[in-house]
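# step 3/5: fold
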Amino acid sequence: MIKIFKFTAISEGFSYLILLSNMLFIKPNNLVLYKTLLFPIGMTHGILFIAYLYLSFIIKEKLKWSAKDVTLIILGSLIPFGAFYIERKYLKNA
């Protein structure tokens, strides 16, 4: 389960960065690019984000994370590059 969480954390981090970079370059009034590019990336990121949160609550008992650790792990998913930091700090030796 921990390997799945590591993979999900890295995937969620990359999907977040891809989504943010595409949002910077796609004009809001360009519906064709929105429907063909931005929507699938956003949907994928949303699924990975939910999986990240779900898995973090599942493995918190196994890794004996405190409430502070779980809060930092959840906040790490909201900050760009945060998932990479979380993976390196909390899951490197797991």
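# step 4/5: annotate
The mean pLDDT is 87.
# step 5/5: archive (pending)
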